[in-house]
Amino acid sequence: MARHAEFDEIGYWSEVKLEIIKKYATAYSKILSKRSELRHIYIDAFSGAGKHISRTTSDFVAGSPVNALEVRPPFHEYHFVDLDSIKVARLRAVAGERQDVKIYEGDCNVVLPKQILPTLAYSSFRRALCLLDPHGLHLDWHVIAMAGKLGTVDMFLNFPVTDMNRNVLWREPERASVDQIARMTQLWGDESWRGAVYEQHDTLFGPGLKKKHDANALLAEAFRRRLQDVAGFEYVPTPMPMRNSVNAVVYYLYFASPKAVAVGIVEDIFSKYAGYGE
């Protein structure tokens, strides 16, 4: 039991996600390493213990921090954040005495905007690849928006539609709790998510709200546009739906960047994994 308390179990769709991010991180580091005037850094806002347990094989699987540390050429700096003290301790053991690794025990919604993102102004000659991979609705929009407006950050983001559908986006929206609605609004940044999911319809008791057909896809596209139009990321390709064994979308994996060339690389990587869950 202790083994499972320290290390998260992940489905094979998350193993695919880890492969995608490692492939992009490798390409990103190769490109940025050729720019001697720039320092490129890696940020993982929900780092975990550094490795996971595969639900498919029960074996250990390297997590995103370990994968990032193995990228060659290396990043100049690594910033790993997690709330869980046990996982942070495991992560410190993985990092050892490396001076290029900084580990933060705390809430990324506080740590990123106060300690990490302010160091990435365009004039700083620092660039970053940032992974925002929450287990559910545990991310504040202001972190996303701050990263987008800097113009120096490439970002992968887990958009947790399973948590949304389970707790917020019910067919009878009035049944969702105030607390769960607040979590959704916190991630989205305002309440405009309602218009992406629900439409007005008439009932025996007057006007009401009805969940739209294919609400997941509509919500995903609305959030993609929001990343561009509101957060300020210039390039946001169609996110990759991460599917489970019955082909249901567990979450959408977004990529956002200030550079067109970055999108080309990501779309090529996404295409290699398209249909993996079908």
Question: Quick gist of this model?
Answer:
This protein has 278 residues and is an alpha/beta fold.
CATH-defined superfamily: Vaccinia Virus protein VP39
Q: What's the overall average pLDDT, rounded?
A: 93
The radius of gyration over CA amounts to 19 Å
CATH topology: Rossmann fold
Query: Strands of the largest sheet, in order across it?
Result: 6-5-2-7-8-12-11
Number of structural domains: 1
Oligomer designation: single chain
Instruction: Give me the strand/helix succession.
Output: HEHEEEHEHEHEHEHHHEEHEEH
Could you describe the largest sheet, including whether it forms a barrel?
Answer: 7 strands, mixed
Strand segment count: 12
CATH class: Alpha Beta
Estimate the helix proportion, in percent: 40-55%
Termini separation comes to 33 Å
CATH architecture: 3-Layer(aba) Sandwich
Q: Which segments are poorly predicted (pLDDT under 50) over 5 or more consecutive residues?
A: none
Structural class: alpha/beta
C-alpha geometry: globular
Estimate the strand proportion: 15-25%
The number of helices is: 11
